[in-house]
Amino acid sequence: MDGVIIDSEPVHVRLEKELLEEFGGDYSKIRPEDFMGTTDAQMWSAFKAQFNIGLSVEEMINIKRERFIANLNQIPLVDGVLDFMASLRDSGCKLGLASSNNERAVEAVKNKFGLAEYIDVFVNGETVSKGKPHPEIFLTAAKLMGLKPEDCLVIEDSRNGVLAAKAAGMKCVGFRNKNSGAQDLSKADLIIGSYKDLTVKALKNLFN
Asked: Which of 31, 70, 89, 170 ranks highest by number of CB atoms within 10 Å?
């Protein structure tokens, strides 16, 4: 979802910097791109341990979640994504969203942008025990869609997401979003910079 359907990474980074400094941490000592694609629990657990933050991980997650939802009006869709998803639906593909973001954020984004019109299954980071680069979230989405992993393709903008997709035994398109940092997408089967560069035929060719 983040960085692939909505262009949200700048807002995530801004909020995480603000909150970490409010909590007594030093944002200059972390690499935000390392946490893109991971769950809230993974990221804030790492911050709590590194900076000895007094708040619980759950408290920090709750504060971040509420601020993210409050800033949703500042987050646009990625250019061309709705047209691309419509073309997939028209070709008979099932679509699933597998986001490391939390349930309330996923629901808010789904409702704001009408994503239920395009997407069959929504999985969030709170429904799995292991975040990306572990493949659990993609395997869960495939199971809910009634598909075998080898019949699935993932679009990802982060290194952690690409690694998770490949670990799940799925094809993967790396989406190079300039707002997602210098992500290593080299393990992807195909790398694009725009949905204008991607067709249903090109995706099907990856399975031949």
From this structure: 170
